[in-house]
Amino acid sequence: MNTLKAVSGKINKKRMTWCGPAAISIITGCGYDAALELLKQVTGRSVIKGVARPDMFRALRRLGYDCKSRQEFTDWRPTLAWWLRQRESDEMSLTYLVNVTGHYLVVRGRKIADNKTGEPVFTRKYPHRRKRVKVVWQVAKATQ
Question: Which one of 20, 30, 71, 110 is separated from 57 by 20 to 30 angstroms, measured CA to CA?
Fold first, then answer.
């Protein structure tokens, strides 16, 4: 997991995409449609619009990734911009799945990606830096 990947698959600007399958695609490199089908299998639902934390973790686990809770904000929720600035230099090489106000996005180094950007963009260029961070998880390849 050296760099973030773009959301792969048949994605175009006219198609509605959801943040859960997009985050899985960005982290793992699998196609958006494959991530959507995996979430349908994991949840038992025929339509995926929102993804609960346990379902996201189960889907990533099936693809060989683990999520470790890093930070959960309950009383005070910082902005994404604040959280990005607070990371230490040794944390820049880690991949994070971030939940901001009911939306999943993926951060690694100075890049951020979600279903709205489609591909990694520099954190300073990300248009939703004022969203409030709820939970941050570190994502890594699972060890057998």
Answer: 110
